[in-house]
Amino acid sequence: MLNFSLKNSYHPLLTSLFGFTALLPTTYAQNIDFIDATFAIGYNGDMGNSQGKLNVTRHQNTYDATFSAEHALLDITQKAHFSMKQCAVTPNSYSNDARPAIKSNVKENIRFNWAQKQANYTKNGTENKQFTLAKTTLYDPLSFFFEARCDLMAGKKRFTYPLIYKGNERQHTYAVVGQATVKTGLGDVEALIVERVRDNKSRQTRFYVAPSLDYMLVKIEHRESALAKATATLTAMNYKVSP
Fold it and tell me: InterPro entries recorded for this chain (predicted)?
């Protein structure tokens, strides 16, 4: 739209920053014209000076989303290019360039060929996998979040999406579990809490989206263990949506 051990500290959180960026409580979802948002990134309660930048631009029915962040534990840049019409998302390409402080760099790419019903995944120029698109839509780790906005808009409380994640086909399920007041750079806002459903109860990922800000993402919390917790909180945002 992420594992928080020190080996791979910020990958889950930074990927998820794209999630739920424009969820509208109307009959039809409004189009995102652009988003320019900044998040403060904290680890184990220490906010430090690390920031994440989220940019989304629209070109008629196609979208480009980019997230980049620099932190002592990880520098990361993720990009997704996809089309979306009437809430139906069709991913075209995805890239992830992660540079951890204590582990080898990771370069991932996914290319979707809908004419041939195949998706191609590569990692670090050596690993190469093919996925069939004939039976179902497969998403990349960013694009499916934009379809999730329509499910929330429709009032769904639980939803599942198939995606290509870390070189494997997986199912990610999310559920609305409550509401909370979130302190942001734009002031206090009321937000829905959307949690990823996991078998491992010690791990937890929560997304906070604000109806008063057109259901934009305002905070993420991820707990990998009792000793590894990360947050991303909105500090500034400029955006536009249109019919």
Answer: DUF3108
